[in-house]
Amino acid sequence: MKVRSYGKLADLLGQETDVDIDVPCTVDELRAHLAAIYPDAAQPLASKRVLACVGDTVVPNSHVVAPGTVVELLAPVSGG
Amino acid sequence: MPAVARLEPNPFDPAGELAELTRCAAGDGAVVSFVGVARDVTKNGEPLQSLVLEHHPRLTAKSLDDIASDALLRFTVSHVRVVHRCGEISPGEPIVFAGATSVHRRAAFEAADYLMDRLKTEAIFWKREEGPNGSSWIEPTEADYADRHRWE
């Protein structure tokens, strides 16, 4: 599984991270897995304002992600 | 096109955008626009060297399109125009232009207000201030989120 991160999350996780998960897992489980590896990112990873996207669509934390999927994690966005 | 949204990598001229919006709105009685400009100090009060707006290769443009289209549907406006910078922005440069036109003024004022509240909290950008002591990420404030909730 590959995780692409944006904004401040990219500073904490790297822009692209390979995650060693070889069974389907929920977005919630993926966030927890990453938080265990990157404790400094635990707080933003738990935030509801950090969105998860698969295939350019925002998915809920209950969404099941298959191995090999690219998941994008968007730190809180801000335009204007 | 009644709803125009453009992701702009280069400095742009807000007066030109307003002129184009006004030209499109022939027959309307109201043209309302807002221009957001990069301040010259950071949130900590230090001199701002630049404001950097990172964007997503696909989702950012879609978020601008969605916000502009939603404003057109929600209010009795004839035209909506959004231009949003990305990349490195110098102090004093425009960041965003948001405008709307309508037959009467109220709808255009409301649409412009709505556009900005949504852009502040939902446009897919990651904003970073570069100052003399390094960089820091800027996220929407609780007031920004509260402003957005006014429209729910």
Encode the helix/strand succession of chain B as letters: EHEEHEEEHEEH
Number of helices of chain B: 4
> In total, how many domains does the architecture of chain A comprise?
1
Portion of residues within helices of chain B: 25-40%
**Which pair has the most extensive contact?**
A-B, 14 and 26 residues
The DSSP helix count of chain A reads 3
CATH structural fold name of chain B = Aldehyde Oxidoreductase, domain 3
Which CATH C-level class of chain B is it?
Answer: Alpha Beta
Q: Give a count of the beta strands of chain B, DSSP E runs of length 2 or more.
A: 8
- CATH class category of chain A: Alpha Beta
Mean pLDDT of chain B: 97
The CATH superfamily name of chain A is: Beta-grasp domain
> What is the rounded Rg of chain A?
11 Å
Could you give the order of strands across the largest sheet of chain B? 1-4-6-2
Largest sheet descriptor of chain A:
5 strands, mixed
Task: Write down how many β-strands of chain A occur, each being a DSSP E stretch of 2 or more residues.
Answer: 7
- Low-pLDDT runs of chain B: none
Q: Give the helix/strand class of chain B.
A: alpha+beta
Please name the defining characteristics of this protein.
heterodimer; A: about 80 residues; Ubiquitin-like (UB roll); five-stranded mixed sheet; two-stranded antiparallel ribbon; 3 helices; B: alpha+beta; Aldehyde Oxidoreductase, domain 3; four-stranded antiparallel sheet; 4 helices; globular
Would you write up a description of this structure?
The complex is a heterodimer of chains A (80) and B (152). Chain A is α+β, with helices and mostly antiparallel strands. Chain A has a single domain, classed as Beta-grasp domain (Ubiquitin-like (UB roll), Roll), CATH 3.10.20. Chain A is built from 3 helices and 7 strands, in the order βαββααββββ. Chain A has a 5-stranded mixed beta sheet with strand order 2-1-7-4-5. A two-stranded antiparallel sheet of chain A has the order 3-6. In chain A, a hairpin with a 2-residue loop joins strand 4 and strand 5. The longest helix of chain A has 11 residues. The radius of gyration of chain A is 11 Å and the shape is globular. The termini of chain A are far apart. The model of chain A has no long low-confidence stretch (mean pLDDT 96). Chain B is α+β, with helices and mostly antiparallel strands and 152 residues long. Chain B has one domain: Molybdopterin biosynthesis MoaE subunit (Aldehyde Oxidoreductase, domain 3, Alpha-Beta Complex), CATH 3.90.1170. In chain B, 35% of the residues lie in helices and 34% in strands. The radius of gyration of chain B is 16 Å and the shape is globular. The mean pLDDT of chain B is 97. At the A-B interface, loops of A face helix 2, helix 3 and strand 7 of B.
